[in-house]
Amino acid sequence: MSKEELRFNSKTIHGGQEPDKAYGAVMPPIYQTSTYAQSTPGGHKGYEYSRSANPTRTALERAMASIENGEYGLAFASGLSAIDAVVKLLKPGDEVISTNDLYGGSYRLFRQVFEQYGIRFHFMGLQDLDAIEAQINDRTQLIWVETPTNPMMNVVDIKGMASLAKKHNILLAVDNTFATPYLQRPLDLGADIVMHSATKYLGGHSDVVVGALVVKDKGLADKLYFIQNASGAVCGPMDSFLVLRGIKTLHVRMQRHCDNGREIANYLKAHPKIAKVYWPGFKEHPNHEIAKNQMSDFGGMISFVPKSGTYKEAVAIVEKLRVFTLAESLGGVESLAGHPASMTHASIPREEREKSGVVDSLIRLSVGIEDVRDLIADLEQAL
User: Fold this and answer.
1) Is the predicted pLDDT of residue 202 greater than 90, yes or no?
2) 214 and 272 together in one domain
3) Which among 332, 284, 264, 269 has a CA at the least distance from the CA of 155?
4) Of these residues, 3, 20, 51, 276, which one is catalytic?
5) Is residue 103 among the annotated active site residues?
C-alpha cells in the first residue's frame, strides 16, 4: 500500500511525507534559511531562494494536498493571502459570485481591495442553484463558496455547485476552513480549488497564522505557484513546521470537536434563554440533508441568539464566560466565543450583515476539546 492509498487518519500522519534525506529525521526539519548554495549559476538541489520554495514549506504543501485528495498544495502567510492569490487569477471586468454571509475579512478583501481594480462581486444565498445560474453571465469567472458559512452555518451543495460551474466553464473555489478535510473534501465533490485558513483547525493550537490552497489541475497549480512566488505572501519554515505538526493530530482533535459540539448544540437548543441555534447537525437546519451527505459529521462551530435579542445581552454573556475565551479566530484546542457583529464581521455594513442573519445579538462559539461538562457549566453560569 502506498502512502497515498492510506485512509484519512493515517494520511494526516504519513501523507506526502518521507523521512528527511539528510539524516533520516522523522519530522521534517525547520530549514531556517533564506537562500541555498549553488554549484554553478542555476545549478542547485531544487531550492534557490525561500520565497520560491523551502523544504519545510514543501513538506507542509505535500501534506495538505494529501489530506484533501489533491495533487498540488500551496502554503501562504495567511488565509487571506491565499484568497488574494485566487482572485489574482482574474482580470478587470470579471465577476465573482459568493455567499451573502461571507467571513468579514474575505468580504473586505473583495469589496475594498479588488473592486477598485474592476472586478465585480455578487453576494447572494448559495442554496438556490437556479437563482445562482440566473446571476451567471459571460463575465462570471469564479464562484467562491464557504460551507458551512461563517457565522450562520449555512450549507452549500458542493456537488451541485460544481456541476453548475462546469456547465458554464467557471472556477469553483471552496473555503473548507470550518469543516476541514476530516469532515468534507470539496475536490472529490468537483471543486477546482480548496482554500484553508490553516491558522484554524489544521494548525489547531492558536499559535500560527498560515493559509493554504489545494488543487488537482496542473495548469491551475502552475498559475497559482507563479502568483505565490511573484507576490511573495508565503509562510516561513517555523510556521510551516507548526501547521504540519498540527495536521498530524487533526483526526483525533476533530472527533472531539464534533462530539463536544453536538452536546453543546443540543444543550443550547433546549435552553429557555436561547431563541435560535445554528448548527448543521439539526434535522431542521437548512440543507441538513446535504450536510449529511457531503460531510462525515457536523463540526464544532455553533452560533446562537439569546431570546432578549439585544446587543447588550450578547456582550454580557460573552464577557461572563470563563472557560470559553472571548477572542477572534477558531479551531484551536481551546474553546473560544466571539461576537461577529463587532469582531470578525465588523467590516461588513450593518444593513448587509443583518440581511444574512448576522444580527447584533448573534454569538459564535468555537467548541474546543476540553471536558464538555466544564464547557456546559461555563455556558450555564454565563446565561
Assistant:
1) yes
2) no
3) 284
4) 51
5) yes
